[in-house]
Amino acid sequence: MLSDPLTGFGAEDRRHHISLLSLLGEKRDSVERVKTSVMAFSYSTNDHVLATAETREVYLKNRKPSLWQQLGKWRDKKHSYRRICIMLSALALALWLLPTQTLGTPNASTACNTLPDLMRSLVSNLGTVETAFIPTNSLNVSGTFNSIAFCRVNGSVPYPENNVVFFEVWLPETEVYTGRFLAVGNGGMAGRIDYVAMVENVNKGFATAGGDSGHRASENNDGDAYPGGVYLPYLHDRNQVLAWIRNSIALFTPPAKKITGAYYQDPPHHTYYKGCSTGGAQGFALAEFHPELFDGIAAGCPGNWYSHLALSFLWNQQVTLEGSAFLPQESLDSIRNAVLDKCDALDGVEDRVLENPLACEFDIESLACKYLAINTSACLTPEQLAAAKEIYHGPRHSVTNRSIYPGFDFGSESEWMFQEGRLSLSFSLPLLQNMVFDDLSYNGSTFDWAADVDSMDQKVGSLIDATSPNLTSFKTNGGKLLVTQGWADPFNAATWPINHLAEVSRVTGGERQDWLSLFMIPGGGHCGGATSYPQIPAKQNSLEALVDWVEKGHIPDDLLGTAPADASGRTRKICRWPQTAKYIEGNPDESHSYICEDTNH
To answer: SS3 for 203-231, per residue?
Structure first.
C-alpha cells in the first residue's frame, strides 16, 4: 500500500540532494525537471500501487521551499554574503555525509518521460503506457532495493474476449545496461507480477519484463484458493486459462522488447527467460509453443505437467488421511534422519544431505513398530508405513497401473507435511471444482483414479500442460534450456524433470546434448532452500551460466551454490546431471573440494 509517496527516499535527503546539485553548478531548470520527474514507490507482496502523476503533483504543491529558494529569500532580505558562504561550505560538507542515492541523469529521466508518446507510434495494439523514472535505492521490494536507477514502464496487451495482460518493463540506465532482455515468470496461480524477480534482475543490468499472466489475483481470491470451495473466474475463461501458463509471456514479450529497443535506440542483442515453479512450467511452454522468442530459458522446479502435479497432491493427501496413516512432523523427521544415517556418506563426506538420493538403498520397513518401541516418533504403524510407501511411489492409474506422476525421494521426508493436506486444498480441489466437475462442494473423496484422471487430462491438461518431448524447433532455433530442480522440493517430485528430459533427449536425438542441461540440487527446496536443510546453499548462478552458454558456447558443467539459510557461507558444486559431486579433499564446505563424476542412477 502506498502510504507515503516518498517511501524509501526521504524528503530531507531528496531536498538536500537537489539543492546541492543546484549549488554545485547544475542549471536551475534542469534541477526542477529532475525534481518533478522523481517518484518513489512502496511495495508489498500482495498490494502494489504505482505512484501517479496526481501523487507527484500533490507532493510538489505541499513540499517545503528548497534550500535554493531559501537562499533567494535570504538574499532578498539582504543577508550578508559571508553568511551565505558559510552556509554553502556547510552544505558541501553535508554532501559527503548524506547516504549515497543518485537521481540518475537528466537525459535518462527525459527519455523515460517521453517514451509513451514514442511507443504509441511504434506499436498499434499496445494499451496505455505509463512511465516513471526510479532513482537509485528508492524502491524497496521485500527488503531488496534497486541498486541502480531505471525507467519503469507500465503497459498492457489485449488478447481474445476482451482480456488483457498487464506487464512492466524496467529499463536500467544506459551506463549499466548489458544489452540483454530478460522476461521473468510467475508463481502458483499467478495473477500478479513477480516484483522480487524484477528488482533482482534489473540490478544485474538486464532490461527486465514481467506480467500478471493474463488475469488478476485481486479478482481471484488474491491468488490463493485455500481451503477450496472458491469460485475462481479465470478458471472459467478458456482464454485466461491458456494465457496463465502457455501464452502470457509470449503476449507481452514482443512489445516489451520494442519498448526496450526504443528506449536504448537499439534492440537487445540477446533475449532470455527465467522462471520457477509455475514460472518453470511457463519456460517449458515457451520452448514448446513459442520456440522462436528466446535465446535461452532457465526453468526451475518446473510444474509443466501441472494437471498431474495437482493430482499428486490429492493422492498424497488421500493416502495419509485415514486412521493412523497420518505422518506427523516428528515422524517425517525421524524417517529422514534414518535415511541420512544410512546414505549420507555416499558422496565421500558426512554433511547430513544426500548428494544423489537415487543411489540410496534404504528399507523403510526397518522403522516398523515391530522392530522399534511403540509410541516413539521413529516407530511407524502399518498404516503409516503403507502411506510413506505410496508417497515414495507416486499416484497410479487404477486401471492401467501407469504412473500418473512420480513419487518423492529419500531425504525429502521432512518436507512432506504440505503434501498431507494444504497443497491438495490449494491446487487440486480448485482445478477439480472449477474446471472438471463444475461443483464447488466437490471434496475429492470420490475421485476415480481412472475415469476422473482422463477427465482431468481432457478438461485441464489440454489447456495448461507443456509436456511434449519434441522441442526440436527450440533446439533448431539455437535455443538453450537450463533446468534446475531441488531434491528436497516439498511440491514437485524431483524425478519429474529427470524423467521428462530423458524423453526430450531421446526424441530430439542424443543422450547428452549441447542445448539442454539439468542440474539436480542436493537438499534443494522449491525455488530456493528447503527448511530442513538450512546448511545447503539456496541460490545458484543459473542465469549467469545460461548467458555464458548462449553467448560464448560454454556448456555449463556445474553451477555454484551459495547463500545457505544458516549464514555459514558454505558453497557447493552442483553438477550437470547425470553427474554428481564427489568429495576429494580440502574443506568440505567449499565447492572446489568436489569434482563431478558420472553416476549410474
So the answer is: CCCCEEEEECCCCCHHHCHHHCCCCCCCC
